[in-house]
Amino acid sequence: MPPKRPRRPRVILAFDLDCFYASVVIRANPALAPLPVAVNQKHLVVTCNYVARALGVRTMSRTADALAVCPSLTVVDGSDLSPFRRAAAAVRATVRAGLPPGTPLQWLGLDEIFVDATAAVAAAADAAPRPPPFRGHLRGSLVDAEDVVSALARGAELAHELRARVKREHGLTMRAGIGRSKLAAKLAAGLHKPDDQTTFLSADAVARHLAPLPPTAIPGFGRGYWARLSAECPELETTQQLLERFPRGSERLLAQVMGCDEKVATWALRACAGEDDVPVTASGPPKLVSNEDAMGNVTSREAVLRAARALGRHMLTRLADDTDEFGPRQPGTLVVRFRLTGTGYKPTQRAMPMPASVCSPCLRNGHARFEEALTAALRDIVQKVVDTIADALAMPRFSFSLLGVGATNFRAGTLPNAAPATPVPASGNASESRGSITNFLAPKAQRRDRSLDNAGISAAGTTSPRTPEGHTSAAALVCPICSARLPSSTTNEMLNAHVDRCVAGGGSSKSGTPSASRKRSRAVAGSSQRIDNFFQSKRHQRRSEEK
Ligand code: TTP
Ligand code: MG
After folding, report:
1. Which of 243, 403, 449, 519 yields a CA-CA distance of 20 to 30 A from 426?
2. What does the alpha-carbon distance between residue 192 and residue 530 come to, in Å, rounded to a whole number?
């Protein structure tokens, strides 16, 4: 038997950019650096620099309150996320370039990156057996096995190099956490702010750090669970007390109390003890690129069209940026979401084949015909939006409180026969060409189904994404997101629910129903996948991504 290769110690790095949006704003205007600076979105301070923090400004406070606390605060509008998205992509590219090919890299939101550096560190050990001295702060004692300590020291060195590289190339600072798990690395990254790094040497050190803290200090331990737990066991305040009250073996009982799966309870107890084996799951390009605008009450056709144009432009520039980062891909489906004032919280959502102009190979940053292609694609998107909301626009009075467009159902590569950008007539704006808008979505019978009180996607949107415009088959009931063929007995309501699930899951399963695909992915990923989702602790992340 060949000798068993010793198991390599796991090394995980977590990076978090310092006061990210504020740093991007200050980089563009360095004169702001010594001043207190806050970034405002919808009357809230979504972040502020460390100068402002020292003067008492708090993230997620109302901007008016922040100004009361710190009258000299410079408030910058952060509603356009494009500069932040671009900065995040550039940082990701630099981190990726500083790692051996194939190193798993996962990002959460725009400014957090996890790296599984196990293989990179092992390769460094093969090349230079003497470990470097530790960089940054240490938590725990150096009593663990020598190979573990050396691997963590190499991980800390790698984190230091990557941070220096990002600072040099992009003028942005980030902090790092190093540990043997994502939990350890993530918690370590929060310990010394800004522009610094910390290593947790052992699970014990993580447990000791968590012991006096409430379980909600564990990334992913939701407040809902905590509320149920506290209601049942009001005496519990810390993770240590939780471990004493629910020792190993009482996972089922804890699951009952928290109202969760036993696997989640097992994960929670292990996390309290500083243990965690959730993998770093390599991130890929987003499955849904969408922009949405909660608009107050928009009552004029012109304002709706302006919003549609702005949203479409955002989506197209994001698609072009994604092409820079991930290579070309074709969005098969356009998703339009809207909400009429007074119709509840849930927006109506319709999906339809993406206009060919959006798949133009000219829609790449730096392409000579980019602007021309963008104009043509924008015109087509606005037409689709107008078509989708035509019933509302035709009413004597209407009021929209939300509008959104998104691209999904991506396929890799460029279309070999993708239509080149078509020239736009000088007078060809969407409002003027209303009469000529083709309702490619549906034959008449189906069009009737698209009444505005039908809160969701209509049967009209259920054609195959690759069906050429104007040649919709009424018989085909195919989900435009996951391409699943649906039984002819499927009602509109069932269809809406199906498409909602697909879009929410960024779904693009090649076949089968979303629930079948969910079951499949569950079988593959097991509980760790779901727990990994818990890791996305920042509530704002999804919001930022969907904006
Ligand atoms: P964070 O990493 O939470 O905060 P930060 O980078 O600003 O500061 P820190 O140095 O403590 O890491 O969030 C990253 C960015 O996400 C932040 O710069 C602004 C944005 N954001 C929102 O859009 N909404 C929110 O609710 C929060 C908290 C942040
Ligand atoms: Mg940050």
Report:
1. 403
2. 29
